[in-house]
Write a structure and sequence with these properties.
By secondary structure, this protein is of the alpha+beta class. Among the domains are: 68-134, no CATH class; 135-179. 49% of the residues lie in helices and 17% in strands. It has two helices and five strands. Strand 4 and strand 5 (130-131) form a beta hairpin. Helix 1 (21-62) packs antiparallel against helix 2 (137-189). The radius of gyration is 33 Å and the shape is rod-shaped.
Amino acid sequence: MALRGPKVWLWRWRRNPLKRRADRVEAWVVLGVWMLTVFVGVLAGMTVSRSVEDGLARERVEWRPLVARLAERAPGTASENGDVSRAEYVWAEARWTAADGSPHSGQVRVLAGSQAGSPITVWTDREGRQVTRPVTESQARVRALLIGGLAGVCAAAAPLAGGRAVRRRLERRRMDQWDAEWSRFGPMWGRTTG
């Protein structure tokens, strides 16, 4: 890598009689890469964010709670003092009927010692399959922003890495040209007048 002097604002765009063609090309490459990086990052982030938020909104509309009944007594013993905040939750088998009338069953979290036949709320999709509770609008917004931001950063890394590779190649080429010129003119400096 070439030696660098102190940072000068917008040095690539200043007029200079010693500026070579390679310097002008590099200036345009840097500008293009930064513009492409910002454009790709913002576009990818917004697209992914909107897609995630739409998918979560669709889940809120399509997923419905149903009342299921425990198929068996839940393992463990019920809390002795009735304090629900300190109660132990266990997995138990529950059965429910979907909107189309088809029977379904699955594992649900219930209080330890719950009796068989106890009503339990389960969330189901259109086909009656068990799903998790859908996220709220604010949770969906936060999730979409985080996933969109991550996708934007990852997408922006591609043009940025490509630009770095192009700059490295331009700098290597510039150094090779400098070496060639130095080998041509360097020996002239070693001559003495006599």
